[in-house]
Amino acid sequence: MRKRTSEYAMGILMQAIMFCSALLCQACSSGKQEPIIPEETVKINKVLILGNSITFHGSKPDIGWTGNYGMAASSESHDYVHLLEGKIKTHNASAQFSIGNIAATFERVFWQADTSHFTTYRDFKPDLIILRIGENITDSLAVEKSLDKHVESLISYLKQNSSPRVCLVGSFWPNANINRIFEELCVKNKWDYVSLDGLYQNRQVNTAINNFANAGVGMHPSDQGMKEISERIWAKIQYLFLI
User: Fold this and answer.
1) Which of 145, 208, 219, 143 has its CA nearest to residue 179?
2) What's the burial of 154, exposed, middle or buried (CB within 10 Å: 0-12/13-18/19+)?
3) Residue 54: which of 174, 172, 152 has the closest Cα?
4) Which CDD domains would you find in this protein's record (predicted)?
5) Domain 44-240 is found in CATH 3.40.50.1110
6) Are 126 and 48 in contact (CB under 8 A)?
7) Distance (Å, rounded) from C-alpha 169 to C-alpha 211?
């Protein structure tokens, strides 16, 4: 008799525990505590892409370039910026873009750059910053002039009016120090890093050397090179849009 009573009491206790657990779960889902949304799920509506002539170059007929888009691409739709825009708009049709060539205002003079040149980009209030530079920086100078500190300063300035995610893209031309600096910055600041290693080595395919008489223009990415750049960037940042 005592055994049956004990078993009965234990059953009542277990039911009580289960009931209390159910009440606790209901309280947790009642809206009293908002769920924590991981940073990577914040919707990306404004994308800022800053670079050099690979990103955008105006017409310059004296060197054989008549486009107004990423240098050496056969058309605007074939440069990496517009290819990337297409991928992003597949997931966010209303995404806005701001594109800038900062070769003269930052890349070539990064150690003494004047931030007043970047006010428009800051005031765009980007949700994502993609910085795609390196070819106009002497690799040894990147170390000598502390490129890392100046890139951090640039990003800090651009982030004054928003809290964007950041993606640094390595050099298309071989620049080991620059790529190392970018990668280390990304680890330090929890940014995304995209390597372009190997693309320039296959110059017959990934550069436009066979399409332009001017060697400077021809050293830029061909349509295939632009496609490779866009795909590598997208592979790294697509998680931001798959929500």
Assistant:
1) 143
2) buried
3) 172
4) SGNH_hydrolase (cd00229)
5) yes
6) yes
7) 25
